[in-house]
């Protein structure tokens, strides 16, 4: 009796366990704090509503992902543990992977998004695309909720995202990376961004921004990358930019910047890239008054800078690998000191008014793989050794220099510089 009673008890216990398990599977979301990754209910619901706002009403998070920080992870969502409970830390929305959810036509930034208490990173990629969605702009309200959490904010490839950058972004004091690239954003740049002193990356390229660059951006002393290329920014380069002492990459190409390149730029000792091409910069080349020994790429083409290359101290930029100075109204001769830039790989001097001879010393630059001097007023015979033409091929361009000639009539046409006449005896 006793034995069989014990057996019955065991069977009943097992059955109860099975019912319990089935119950858990069916009502997983209700038992969220017993199985899986425990979350505060408001946090979990905020997550569902926020994502539903982006992908559409059909998406039922609690059905599809009852345990979003545990055994039913949502693609693009990461979580972390704070005092024994799970919170959302990263959200990536949009078509990042083949199987990511597309954004809805009538998407909205749900007010629930801003209830996520520990959100560190928000990224919206290739999401707001079709004009029928829009116009959708970044509403200025609510962002203050993220002021002590968010470190990275990225909107990339959203042509349907229009309007200005909200000034309230200036309150996101933990922000280290603000990337707003290839959207339809416009208006002037908010002064308040200059308050984000932890910022390391400020990328605003490929939008429709206008107006001047705020002087306050010179306070971003921890900035490593500043890229505002491909906008319609105007005015002068702020003198305050000498304060961007950590800067590695500075790209303002394809805007309408005027005035001179301030000599304060040479305070930027760690700068490796300076690209100011395709602007309206004038006033000569005087900025490298001090050594800029980190500078590897200097790209200033398509600006009416109109000066000669003799007054520039090329020894101060001795690490240059890329030097692109085409279409700048340059006059005078090409200084022999340029052949002292031992790391040079690319030298572009097309479409200027450079005169005199092309120094054969340039052939001593072992790493040089491209040299373009098309469309100048260079004269005399080219005096490079035969091996130079063999090495360079079409990456040596010297056509449209009416008084330049080539002395090796017998060299095969394949390596002969294109468009340069053979010298007359
Ligand atoms: C999701 O589904 C559950 C149960 O299937 C339902 O109770 C809930 O209302 C749905 N939520 C939404 C937002 O549709
Ligand atoms: C410049 O780079 C060096 C080496 O990476 C680093 O030690 C230094 O702190 C940097 N300077 C500034 C002002 O960030
Ligand atoms: C370029 O700047 C000059 C002044 O330096 C100005 O007169 C001219 O209109 C500007 N050009 C464009 C296209 O903005
Ligand atoms: C040329 O390039 C090589 C390999 O990229 C590099 O190691 C070297 O420092 C460069 N400079 C010179 C002068 O050879
Ligand atoms: C080119 O140089 C020659 C002298 O070498 C000079 O006579 C001529 O005016 C120059 N042409 C231009 C367009 O600068
Ligand atoms: C440059 O040369 C090419 C052919 O070599 C010619 O078609 C072109 O018109 C020339 N351009 C100028 C500005 O002289």
Describe this structure in words.
Belongs to the RLP family. Keywords: Cell membrane, Glycoprotein, Leucine-rich repeat, Membrane, Receptor, Repeat, Signal, Transmembrane, Transmembrane helix. InterPro entries: Leu-rich_rpt, LRR_dom_sf. This is Piriformospora indica-insensitive protein 2. It is a single chain. Strand 1 and strand 2 (85-94) form a beta hairpin. The protein has a domain at 36-118. Mean pLDDT is 89; it is low at 1-33. The chain is elongated and about 90 Å long. Helix content is 12%, strand content 25%. The protein has helices spanning 2-26, 41-55, 61-64, 386-392; strands at 77-82, 85-94, 121-125, 136-137, 152-163, 177-187, 201-203, 208-212, 225-227, 232-236, 249-251, 256-259, 273-275, 280-281, 297-299, 322-324, 331-333, 346-348, 353-356, 370-372, 377-381, 396-397, 403-406, 421-422. The chain starts with a helix and ends with a strand. It has 425 residues and is an alpha/beta fold. The structure holds 2-acetamido-2-deoxy-beta-D-glucopyranose (NAG) (6 copies). One 2-acetamido-2-deoxy-beta-D-glucopyranose binds at residues 256, 258, 280, 282.
Bound molecules: 2-acetamido-2-deoxy-beta-D-glucopyranose
Tally of strands: 24
Strand content: 15-25%
Low-confidence stretches: 1-33
The secondary structure category is: alpha/beta
The whole-number mean of residue pLDDT values reads 89
How big is the Rg? 31 Å
Helix content: 10-25%
Overall 3D shape:
elongated
Largest sheet: 19 strands, mixed
The total count of helices amounts to 4
H/E order of the elements? HHHEEEEEEEEEEEEEEEEEEEEEHEEE
Distance between the termini: 125 Å
Membrane topology: Single-pass type I membrane protein
Main location: membrane
Keywords: Cell membrane, Glycoprotein, Leucine-rich repeat, Membrane, Receptor, Repeat, Signal, Transmembrane, Transmembrane helix
Subcellular location: Cell membrane
């Amino acid at each position: 009796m006793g034995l069989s009673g014990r057996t019955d008890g065991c069977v009943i216990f097992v059955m109860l366990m099975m019912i319990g398990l089935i119950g858990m599977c069916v009502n997983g979301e209700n038992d969220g704090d017993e199985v899986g990754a425990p979350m505060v209910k408001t946090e979990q619901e905020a997550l569902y509503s926020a994502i539903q706002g982006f992908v559409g009403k059909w998406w039922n998070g609690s059905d599809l992902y009852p345990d979003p920080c545990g055994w039913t992870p949502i693609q693009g969502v990461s979580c972390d543990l704070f005092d024994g409970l799970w919170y959302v830390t990263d959200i990536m929305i949009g078509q990042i992977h083949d199987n990511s959810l597309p954004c809805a036509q009538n998407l909205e930034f749900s007010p629930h998004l801003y209830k996520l208490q520990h959100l560190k990173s928000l990224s919206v990629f290739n999401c707001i695309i079709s004009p029928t969605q829009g116009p959708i702009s970044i509403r200025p309200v609510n962002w203050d909720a993220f002021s002590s959490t968010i470190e990275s904010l990225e909107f990339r490839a959203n042509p349907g995202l229009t309007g200005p950058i909200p000034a309230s972004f200036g309150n996101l004091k933990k922000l280290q990376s603000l990337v707003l690239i290839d959207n339809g954003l416009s208006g002037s740049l908010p002064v308040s961004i200059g308050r984000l002193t932890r910022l390391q990356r400020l990328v605003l390229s490929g939008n429709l921004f206008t107006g001047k660059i705020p002087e306050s951006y010179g306070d971003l002393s921890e900035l490593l990358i500043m890229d505002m290329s491909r906008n319609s920014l105007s005015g002068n380069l702020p003198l305050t930019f000498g304060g961007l002492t950590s800067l590695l990459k500075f790209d303002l190409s394809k805007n309408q910047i005027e005035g001179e390149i301030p000599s304060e730029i040479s305070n930027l000792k760690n700068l490796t890239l300076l690209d100011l091409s395709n602007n309206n910069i004038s006033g000569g080349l005087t900025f490298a008054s001090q050594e800029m020994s980190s500078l590897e790429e200097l790209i200033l083409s398509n600006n009416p800078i109109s000066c000669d290359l003799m007054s520039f101290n090329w020894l101060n930029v001795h690490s240059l690998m890329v030097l692109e100075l085409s279409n700048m109204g340059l006059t005078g001769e090409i200084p022999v000191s340029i052949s002292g830039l031992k790391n040079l790989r690319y030298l572009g001097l097309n479409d200027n008014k450079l005169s005199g001879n092309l120094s054969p010393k340039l052939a001593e630059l072992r790493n040089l793989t491209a040299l373009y001097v098309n469309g100048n007023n260079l004269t005399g015979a080219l005096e490079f050794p035969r091996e130079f033409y063999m090495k360079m091929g079409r990456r040596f361009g010297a056509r449209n220099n009416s008084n330049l000639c080539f002395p090796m009539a017998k060299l095969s046409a394949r390596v002969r510089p294109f468009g340069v006449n053979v010298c007359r005896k």
